[in-house]
């Protein structure tokens, strides 16, 4: 309880003393959340267009999640991965019903869900493709931070890290069919990709490309994996991003928004890829009651409140408002789907703009030096859009990103 009485300064000092330095964090301490807003320990309020990193799909501390956690925690928190529990069964039924997949495996993070998909792909290769083990992934992709998912990730900055990587990943540029076909060989067991690259700067895959990948996977009996960790469950304006394309994968991974902030992830597979045997994959916390109850409550709310539709509508409004800034400000290339949106600012200014907005009570994300990404909770309203645009516009003025300043 001692820390509750500490001043923000002493909290920050002890944070720097005791936490491993794995992230550049601003000198504030987040303390409370409600709906679209966060408050720090100094009482400053922030309109949240980062959404806990595309996680707090229902906003901060929503009643549906609070109630589910309170009820389930008084009933059963953890029984052991060696037993079935009721929320596990109910959530599995719900996810298979709404997704068009037959089977689900639960884990605790996006990386773990992708790790499961990688293992399932290798099992498929071992059983049905003569020991094929290579997985084709995309340049600029992001699949997580375990050693295998870092190896799958096509991020330039990851290349020199933690060598040697896990072998068996080939990276090809997104939307380049020739490059992908050239990479397919007897050793290929799977192709894995995001439908909108999130961490990579909000770049969507094109429909004809995806359709051609689906065809090739069918012809060669290669597993097609969509990493919908960021795009799934309403984020892009459909329940799943694959619905935009009319292309269904064999395996799909979900995490981030699935339980509104409680750590839960899922790997879904069609009947044909129900290939794991007992012992192949698991985890102490996977499918534990508390997380399953949280996921069930959050996904039910996303469906019942038609939040995918809200994401589509508010996303379109945000795109329109951002495009309206083109004339006066050095803003360009508004892109994305639903509430996974990006736009460009001049090289090097994105982190500066994000820091200025933070000072003025708006959280936005700069995935690289020239891109701003917006991923607010799916409950965002037109008033919240108006407030965001007002603070963003003031931020563009303050850091000198008016067209006059940039051109002169
Ligand atoms: C965030 C993310 C991951 C990793 O999820 P974690 O929960 O951080 O392990 C994987 N893939 C995509 C597309 C993501 O956006």
UniProtKB/TrEMBL annotation:
By its UniProt entry, which Gene3D superfamilies does this protein fall under? Aspartate Aminotransferase, domain 1, Type I PLP-dependent aspartate aminotransferase-like (Major domain)
Top-level division of the source organism's lineage: Bacteria
Q: Give this protein's Gene Ontology molecular function annotations.
A: transaminase activity
Q: In which pathway does it act?
A: Amino-acid biosynthesis; L-arginine biosynthesis; N(2)-acetyl-L-ornithine from L-glutamate: step 4/4
**Any idea which UniProt keywords this protein has?**
Amino-acid biosynthesis, Aminotransferase, Arginine biosynthesis, Cytoplasm, Pyridoxal phosphate, Transferase
Sites where the protein binds N(2)-acetyl-L-ornithine: 145
Catalysed conversion reaction: N(2)-acetyl-L-ornithine + 2-oxoglutarate = N-acetyl-L-glutamate 5-semialdehyde + L-glutamate
List every position bearing N6-(pyridoxal phosphate)lysine: 256
Identify the SUPFAM superfamilies for this entry.
PLP-dependent transferases (SSF53383)
- Give the residues the record marks as binding pyridoxal 5'-phosphate: 110-111, 142, 227-230, 284
What the entry lists under InterPro entries is as follows:
AcOrn/SuccOrn_fam, Aminotrans_3, Aminotrans_3_PPA_site, Class-III_PLP-dep_AT, PyrdxlP-dep_Trfase, PyrdxlP-dep_Trfase_major, PyrdxlP-dep_Trfase_small
Top class in the EC scheme = transferase
What EC designation does it have? 2.6.1.11
Task: Share any extra remarks.
Answer: May also have succinyldiaminopimelate aminotransferase activity, thus carrying out the corresponding step in lysine biosynthesis.
The family database entries (PANTHER family) matched by this protein are listed as: ACETYLORNITHINE AMINOTRANSFERASE, MITOCHONDRIAL, AMINOTRANSFERASE CLASS III
The family note in this entry says: Belongs to the class-III pyridoxal-phosphate-dependent aminotransferase family. ArgD subfamily.
What protein name is recorded for this chain? Acetylornithine aminotransferase
Organism this protein belongs to:
Paenibacillus glycanilyticus
Q: What is the lineage of its organism?
A: Bacteria, Bacillati, Bacillota, Bacilli, Bacillales
